[in-house]
Write a structure and sequence with these properties.
alpha+beta; Rossmann fold; Dna Ligase, domain 1; D-amino Acid Aminotransferase, Chain A, domain 1; 7-stranded antiparallel β-sheet; 6-stranded mixed beta barrel; 32 strands; about 20% helix; about 35% strand; elongated
Amino acid sequence: MEKFADFITEAKLDTDIEIAILTKVKSKKPELVSNLIEKVCKKRGIKCHIINVKQAWINKNDLETGLLTVSNIDGEDKIVEFNTRKTVCIVRAGVLEDEIGIALLTSFERSGAFMINNKEGMLTCDNKMSAFLSFERNSIPTPKTSIISNEKSLDDALERIGNKYPMIIKSITGTQGIGVSIVDSYESLVSNVQSLWKFGAELLIQEYLKFDYDIRTIVVGGKILASTKRIRPKDDFRSNRHRGATTEPHKLSDAERETILRAARAVGAYVVGVDHALVGDKIYVLECNGSAGIGSNFAMYDATDTESDKNDYVGEAKPSKIVDKLIEFIQVANNRRHSFPTESGYVERIEVEGYGPLRAKFDTGNGTNASMFVVDKIDIKGRTVRWEKNGKKFTSALQGISKPEHVGKIDERPIVNVNIIFNNRKYIDVPIGLATKDARSNFLANRALMTLFQVTVNPNRRFVLSDWIERGDENDEDDLPTKKMKGIDQGRRSK
């Protein structure tokens, strides 16, 4: 039987995953990233589907079983059913440009697929002002930038970036150097922004930094995968490959590596192209791309070494090799670490099917192989467990024995499967370890269960996604800190 936490903790290469690529671009060009991924997946025995978001739609979304059915994925009536617990969803550029693409992305994300990248990370990278603010908050060196919404805001914006010409005008969104221009006077600036505003463009201005090349680095799961130098054409200030820039492998210095990884963490994207430039002896992060192109000659780093965090430089590589190493990296289940936008409290109300609602503590430090449920009686005979809670009797198949260490002693808890309802969704065959000893919590959720719930726990709040429920005894220790603090919200209470 497949273990509940295999997709989180297993270190071997996993061929049982399925890849869904969301894209607006339908082309048979072999150099297209989507096609490169598909080719690599075929070689590695991994199912891969390219979904054209302009033509596909969600046919069925079964939250209980985790199955997501997508119709017409290729414009030719093809229907695919995804088990989202085993699905890696790769989002390419353009998907967030219309509501259909966003709906497909959101459906995969909320159904539990592992996202490359999630909507929040994609939006942060896609919006240059959001990315700049992320860099600024994290003290990452970047060109001075200011948004301009109308002519009245120009003077303030100019002052914030130093009032120096030439300067750069950029659309807040845009890729491949599109929507980027340089101006050398106030008159030219006003003329350009007025023309762009007529087309509804959202704009920012940025200080001009002189450099002959920039460096794009691909970061995956907090590790550097590859880096390339993009050399500007003589007749263009932009260094995008689509504008005629040439590329060559670039071996990063230690200082570059540190700054790049900080920038990747700041925008919160799992796979991200970080662009930076060297101006004298200073490093400036220019932007981050949540759907970076890989059509360059790269220096490659050992991001796939699961036994070491050295992330050493290993030589030069072509795009196909970079994609191969990317897929190898995400094949390791422990590398697919979820980051969920949904926030829960550290205490929430759950329901164990057949028993009823109870108060559960979400313990982010609990790495045991089963959540704990405190019951009144336990009787084990062979592979059968009979247990009792508040007069309700249950018979379950023994799934194994949990042996957590508690106060220096090893507890042995029989593991059984139960169905749990939380936040309007049912979870089938969740493993729990039964205990009869007094505990501060009737139910202690482990990290695996929180991952299944797709929540990030806020240690300062309780009952964010559910109604308040008492512990069921007079010693409500979880309430003690807040009982001493008058005026603090005690959560939503049910009557």
